[in-house]
Amino acid sequence: MRTNRSREHLADEILAAFLDGEVSKSQIRAIQNHLNLCWKCRSALAELETAAEATSRLLAERSKDEIDRSLQARERFLRWKAAFEARELFFFKCHPPQWAFAGGVLA
Ligand SMILES: [Zn+2]
């Protein structure tokens, strides 16, 4: 990795690896040395950091939305099931089984 030349700017991949903690200790030192001297790479790193935060925030929100959606679907199903069961109960209260037999439904 060519990060140690302080005159060369750090590549985005290197900055990203640095952010993710995927660089060795000596590389961290070299990168930090360069960052201390170079505002351009510092701002690139800040941009990457912001982008990474936004991405993880987006992912977190999306999975929260998905959880909400599945919870809502489950609630809807349970409400529908309860309503269905209540209706079924109501049906049998109003229409005793003899009616069903007489009507040939359960014969
Ligand atoms: Zn630089």
Q: Helices, strands, pairings?
A:
Layout: H1 12-19, H2 25-37, H3 39-94, H4 97-102
Helix pairs in contact: 1-3, 2-3
Bound molecules: zinc ion.
**The biggest beta sheet, please?**
none
Assembly state of the chains shown: single chain
Kindly state the number of beta strands: 0
**C-alpha-based Rg, rounded:** 32 Å
Per DSSP, the total helix count is 4
**Could you list the spans in which at least 5 consecutive residues all have pLDDT below 50?**
none
Helix content: over 70%
Strand content: under 5%
Structural class, by secondary structure, is mainly alpha
**Apparent shape:** rod-shaped
Q: What's the rounded overall pLDDT mean?
A: 83
**In sequence order, what are the helices and strands, one letter per element?**
HHHH
User: For the terminal residues, how far apart are their CA atoms?
Assistant: 82 Å
- Small molecules (ligands, ions, cofactors) in the structure: zinc ion
